[in-house]
Amino acid sequence: MRNALKSLLFVALVLFGPMAVGVSAEDVAQAADAGAAPLPGVTAEDLQALQQRLDGLKQEISSASNYNQLEAPQDRVQDYILDIDRLSAALLPQQAQLTVQLGVLGATPAEGVAPEQADIAAQRATLTAQKAKVDTALKNLATLKQSATDLINQIAGIRRNLLESELTLGTLSILNPDFWAPMLEPSADDRQRLGEFIAQVKETGAEVWKPGQRFYTCVLVLLALLFWTLGRRLAERQMTQFCIHRMPEGRLRRSSLACASAIATLFTTGVALQLLYYACTRNEPLTPMLASFSTEFEKTVYACVMITGLSRALLSTEHPSWRLPDIADPVASALKPFARLLAGTLLALVTLSQLCTAAGMSSQLVMGIRGVVALLVMAIIVTMLVRTGQVRNALMAANGPSAEISTLAGVVYAVACLSMVVSLIALLTGYVSLARFVIYELLWSYIVLTGFYLLMQLFKDGCEFLFSPRHASGKALKHLLGMSDRRLDQLSILLAGFGRAALLLLTVITLFVGGIGTTLGQLISNVVAILGGAGLRKLNIVPGHLLNAVLALMIGIYLIRALRRWLDNEFLPKTDMDPGMCASLSTLFSNIGYAFVILLTLSSLGVQWTNLAWIVSALSVGIGFGLQEIVKNFVSGLILLTERPVKVGDLISISGVEGDIRRINVRATEIQLSDRSIVIVPNSQLISQNLRNVTLGGSAQGVATLELMFPLDIDPEQVKNLLLDTYREHETLLEKPAPFVRFSKLSPDGITLTVTGYVASPRIVGTTKSDLLFEILKRLGAEGIELAKPPPSA
C-alpha cells in the first residue's frame, strides 16, 4: 500500500506539478524519491553571516571621512545585493517544489472523516516544516536586500554632502609656501603611514615571490605586459582587418573601425589588469589598505585608457580617411600627443593621491597632491588649447572662409577655456577640491561625449546599411514586409532617429550620474535608478517590457497591412459590393486595427489604465482648447464610413467645389476635380453643410443644356428643328426623356432659345455639350443663320 501511494504521488507530481508552478519534471521526481529528506537551502549561519557583512559595511560607511572613501563600499553593497539575489533565486524552485508536494497530499482531513495513514501525515508535517523554513529564509533575505538598498540611497546622500563640503572647503593658495610644505617635508605621522603601506606592499611582494611561486609570478606579469602592449596592437590589427574585409564599404566601415579601436584598447587593458591582480592575490588576499588602493587604481587605469583609446579612434591620424568627425589633418596631428601625455600624468599623479588616501595620510598632504594634480593637468589642457588655437588660426589664414570651424567645435573650445579659468581662480584662492572637481568633470565629459558619439554614429550607419535596398538585409526586409525603397528609407531614418535620441538621453544622464572613478556597475545602477524611477513605476512600465511592446507594435502593423492588402486585392473584389463600399470597409478596418494595435502595445508595455487619469484629463483640456476640430473631423469620418451619405467614386458638389471623391480618410476627404487636382475637405463639412451628391441614386442622368441668342428676323421653326435634329442625332443623347427646345426670352437684341437633352451620366455632360455646340455652329453656318451680336457697350 505504501509503495502504491508513493507511485501515485510520483505520477501526480510528474504530470501536474510542472504545469502548476513551472518546475521541471526531473526536480519533482527527485523530490518524490527523496521523500522527507531535507532540502538544501540557506542556513541560520548563512543569514547571520550576511547580517554581519551588512553591519560591517554600515560601520565602514559611517567612518568614511571623504568623498572618495565611499566609492569602494558602494561597490561592495552592490555585490552584497547580487549575492542575496542569487540565494533567493536558488530558494524559489525549492519553494515551488514544496508547494506542489503539499498540494498533492492535500489538507489535513477534518474531524469525523476517516483518518489518513500515519506515513502521509508525517510526510505532510515534514514538508510543511521545510516550506516554513524556506519561506522564512526568503523573507529574511528580502529584508536584508531592502536594508542594503536603503544603504545605497544613504551612501548617495552622504557622498553628496561630503562632496559639497569638499568643494566649499577653503585651504591655502598654491602661491602660499605653506601649501607645499606637507609635500616637501612630510610629518612623522605621514611618514609612518607611508611606511606601513610600503611594508604591506613588501609583504605581498614577498608572498608572490617566495620559492615555488616566482616562475608563475613572472609568467603572469609578463603576460599582463604583453597584453597591455603587443596584445593591444594585435587585437586592434585583427579587428581592423575584420572590419575592412567583413564590413561594407562606406560610413559603417568607418564607424566600425573607430569603435573597434576603442574596444580593443579597453579589452586588452582589462585582461592585463586581471592578470596582475591574480598574480598578487592568487595565494593570499590583499590587506584592506591595499584592496582599497587596488580598486581605485583600477578605476584610474580605465579612465586613462578610455582617454587614449577614444582619442586615437576619433583623431585617426594614421588613416585620415577613417576619421569620423570633421577635423582637419593639421588639427588632428596637433592634438595627437596630448592624449597620451594627459593619460600618463593622470595615471602617475592620481595614483599617488590614491596612495595617500588609502594610507590615511593627513588632509594637508592629500590636498597638496590634489593641487599638484589639478595644476599639472590644467597646464596640459591649456597648452593643448593654445596649440589647437594656433593651428586653427593658421588654417583660416591659409584657406580663408573655407576653414571656418563648426558651431559645436567652438562651443567645446569655449567651455574648455572657461573651465580652465575657473580652475585657475580656484587654485589661486585656495579652493583646491573645487579646481580638481572642475578638471575631473571636464575629463569625464570628454569620455562620455566621445564614447556616445561613436555609438550614435555606429547605430546610424548600421540602420542605413540594414535597411538599404542595395544590400541583402534591405532586400530581405523589402520582400518580407512588402515595402518600397522609399518606405525602407523612411524606416531607416525613423529608427536611427529614435536610437540616437535614446543614446542622447543616456549621454545626458551619464554626464550627471557618473564621474572620474565611477565603475561600470555604479554607472549602470545609477542610470537604471533614474530610468526606472517613480514616474515609470506609477505607470507600471518595466524596462524589460519595452522589447515586447516594440515587437507587438511591429507585428501588429505588419498584420494590418497584410490583411488590408488581402481585403483590397482578393476578398472584396469578389463580392457584389460596389468599389466605394469596398474602399469604405477597407479604411474602417484599418482604423479599428490600428486602434487595437495601440491598445495591445500599451498593454505589452505594462501600462495600467487606472493610472492614466492624468493623460485623460490633459487630453480633455486639449480637446476643449485646440483638438476639438480634429476630434470632430474624426467622428465625422466614422459617420461617413458607416452611414455612407457619400462614398468613394461619388460625384459631389460642395461650397463651389465639384468633383469625384477619391478617398475618405480619418480626418479629411480627398476630392478630385476635372483637371486632376485634389481638394482636401474636412469631414465635418461633408456632414454639417449642404452637399449635392450627383451620383447617390445610382441612376442619375446628366443634363446637357445650351442657351443661344438669335436675331429677330430668323425663322424660329427652322432653328428649332435644326437644334432638335442635332440633339437627336448625337450618339450620347438619350431618346427618353426626349430633347426639347424652349423659347426662353424675347428682347430687342434678339430671340433666346434653350435646347435641353439628357445623357447617361453627369460625368459626360461637359464633353457632350462641347460636341453639340461644335455641331450646331457648323449647321447654322451651312444654313446661313447667324447668332445675335451683343449690343455695343456705351
UniProtKB/TrEMBL annotation:
Residues 141-200 form the DUF3772 domain. It comes from the Bacteria. Residues 1-25 form the signal peptide. Residues 707-787 form the Mechanosensitive ion channel MscS C-terminal domain. The chain crosses the membrane at residues 214-235, 256-279, 338-361, 367-386, 407-431, 437-456, 493-521, 541-560, 581-600, 612-631. Keywords: Membrane, Signal, Transmembrane, Transmembrane helix. InterPro entries: DUF3772 (IPR022249), MS_channel_1st (IPR049142), MS_channel_C (IPR049278), MscS-like_channel (IPR052702), MscS_channel_2nd (IPR006685). Residues 630-695 form the Mechanosensitive ion channel MscS domain. Residues 587-628 form the Mechanosensitive ion channel transmembrane helices 2/3 domain. This is DUF3772 domain-containing protein. It comes from Pseudomonas ekonensis. The lineage of its organism: Bacteria, Pseudomonadati, Pseudomonadota, Gammaproteobacteria, Pseudomonadales.
